[in-house]
Design brief:
Elements (H helix, E strand, L loop, with lengths): L1 E2 L2 E13 L5 E13 L1 E6 L7 E6 L10 H12 L6 E7 L9 H16 L6 H9 L7 H4 L3 E4 L4 E4 L8 E6 L6 H6 L10 H4 L7 H4 L3 H6 L5 H11 L4 E4 L6 E5 L14 E6 L1
Parallel strand pairs: 5-6
Antiparallel strand pairs: 1-4, 2-3, 3-7, 4-6, 7-8, 9-11, 9-12, 10-11
Helix pairs in contact: 1-2, 2-3
Length: 273
């Protein structure tokens, strides 16, 4: 079974407090981004154990601990009849960019196994498994705009339709680790409630919708500010860091923007949501 795990964008991201368990309480709106990896899940040949092959962007670490493998093994704990799987992941979405690509891979591995082997798991059940793999993994089960709270794994419905919105995502070939990003954060309550701030037209978001990681990271990585300023200069209605970075995106309410020139070492996705 071949599936295409997509990335996500954060519209606003507020880190409101540190939890007793060491995690942080967040408030953000997650939006699917049609920039995808490719993931294939098949029954392994007879006599072989579950394995994964990787192509595309390099993925650090032991492939045996890849989130796709962990997702499949998590299902096997409750469904021992699941045969070993042969998994192939072609990585396109940048790593360490705040786009949720690894979380998407894990969630889509769960969904692919559920469909391929007819496990009959509901979306609620799949979300429960996904939450055990990562805070934002569960978002990719239903894959629609939500207001994410708590650790980013509890979702509230939000009336937000960005269909037809033009989007440019710029990754400046800069990996920002989640641990580094959170170490620079000072938790605080947001000035503007996110649900209400996103209700008016997009042109108003620049004044009311922000990402706390942007404030924490731009003094260390001024390239993030440079990219954002270029997106606004090109006519974006709204631009922001996504997640804990380092990808920066711009949105055009009136459709796909004209092609922009970026340094050759940057990775850029441009399209329509």
């Amino acid at each position: 079974m071949l599936v295409f795990p997509n990335a996500k964008l954060n519209l606003g991201l507020y880190v409101t407090q540190r939890r007793p368990d060491g995690f942080h309480t967040l408030e953000s709106v997650f939006v699917p981004l049609p920039w995808t990896n490719a993931l294939e899940v098949l029954p392994a040949p007879a006599g072989q154990a579950t394995s994964i092959t990787l192509t595309g962007r390099p993925i650090p670490g032991d492939p045996a601990t890849n989130l796709c493998v962990r997702a499949y093994e998590l299902l096997q704990t409750d469904f021992p009849q699941l045969p070993p799987a042969q998994i192939h992941l072609h990585k396109i979405v940048p790593i360490g960019a705040g786009l949720g690509g690894g979380s998407a891979d894990a969630a889509f591995a769960l969904k692919a196994a559920n469909d391929l082997f007819a496990l009959g798991l509901t979306d609620d059940a799949l979300e429960s498994y996904a939450r055990r793999l990562g805070s934002d993994c569960a978002f990719f089960i239903r894959n629609k705009p939500v207001l994410a709270v708590e650790k980013g794994d509890v979702f509230e419905e939000i009336s937000l339709d960005l269909t037809g919105t033009g989007c440019v995502v710029v990754y400046p070939n800069l990996h920002i680790g989640t641990g580094e990003a959170y170490a620079r954060i000072i938790s605080k309550r947001p000035t503007h409630a996110l649900r209400e701030a996103l209700a008016p037209p997009m042109t108003s978001w620049r004044a009311t919708v922000s990402n706390d990681f942007e404030t924490a990271l731009t003094p260390i990585y001024p390239v993030l500010t440079d990219i954002k300023q270029q997106l606004y200069a090109a006519g974006a209605a709204y631009a922001s860091l996504t997640g804990s970075g380092s990808a920066v995106y711009g949105l055009w309410a009136d459709g796909e923007p004209k092609a922009l020139a970026w340094p050759a070492e940057y990775t850029v996705w441009q399209g329509v949501l």
